[in-house]
């Protein structure tokens, strides 16, 4: 049975390219279906890819080739919990190396403008540490980073 709630992501003609990238890059991700327009529409012609059904890490999505009218911004992002530095580096670098751009505190944007938070679980544990001083040190360390460096977060948490 299809999901009752699906995230719809707007693209300017690149929904299939984006969905295929996500399927190659993230675990538990796949392209399920590509639907072509049955007639002309404001940003395309009959037969063009109109929507793409896909999952990103198990989350059902539909990519809509709606044209240039709307752009992604940081108000929506995928937060990806990573287990170690290797996974953090792999996902971050995949996004950046595919035309994306780095931002602050573990955030980056893919080439289509969609924001991603590549967030090691260690970071979440550190900034929610029951010791307020340890949490603050970890938080302050994070604020200086683009891609998260787990060793630096752990050192800051310990006060090193």
Task: Explain what the structure shows.
- The chain has 160 residues and is an alpha/beta fold.
- The protein folds into two domains: 1-68, 2,3-Dihydroxybiphenyl 1,2-Dioxygenase, domain 1, CATH 3.10.180.10; 72-160, 2,3-Dihydroxybiphenyl 1,2-Dioxygenase, domain 1 (Roll), CATH 3.10.180.10.
- It is 32% helix and 28% strand.
- It is built from five helices and eight strands, in the order βαββββαβββααα.
- The strands form two sheets. The chain has a four-stranded mixed β-sheet with strand order 1-4-3-2, covered by helices on one side.
- A hairpin with a 2-residue loop joins β3 (49-56) and β4.
- α3 runs parallel beside α5 and α4 runs antiparallel to α5.
- It is elongated and about 60 Å long.
Short description:
A four-stranded mixed sheet has the order 1-4-3-2, covered by helices on one side.
- CATH fold field value of the largest domain: 2,3-Dihydroxybiphenyl 1,2-Dioxygenase, domain 1
Name of the top-level CATH class of the largest domain: Alpha Beta
Uncertain regions spanning at least 5 consecutive residues: none
Q: In whole angstroms, how far apart are the ends?
A: 51 Å
């Amino acid at each position: 049975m299809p999901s009752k709630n699906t995230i719809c992501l707007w693209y300017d003609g690149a929904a299939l390219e984006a969905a295929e990238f996500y399927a190659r890059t993230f675990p538990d991700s796949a392209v399920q279906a590509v639907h072509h327009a049955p007639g002309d529409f404001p940003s395309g012609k009959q037969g063009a890819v109109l929507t793409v059904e896909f999952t990103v890490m198990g989350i059902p999505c539909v990519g809509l080739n709606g044209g240039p009218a709307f752009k992604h911004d940081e108000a929506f992002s995928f937060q990806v919990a990573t287990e170690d530095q290797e996974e953090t580096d792999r996902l971050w670098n995949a996004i950046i190396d595919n035309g994306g751009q780095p931002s602050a505190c573990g955030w980056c944007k893919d080439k289509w403008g969609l924001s991603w938070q590549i967030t090691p679980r260690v970071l979440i544990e550190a900034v929610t540490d029951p010791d307020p001083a340890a949490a603050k040190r970890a938080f302050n360390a994070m604020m200086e980073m683009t891609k998260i460096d787990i060793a630096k977060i752990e050192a800051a948490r310990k006060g090193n």
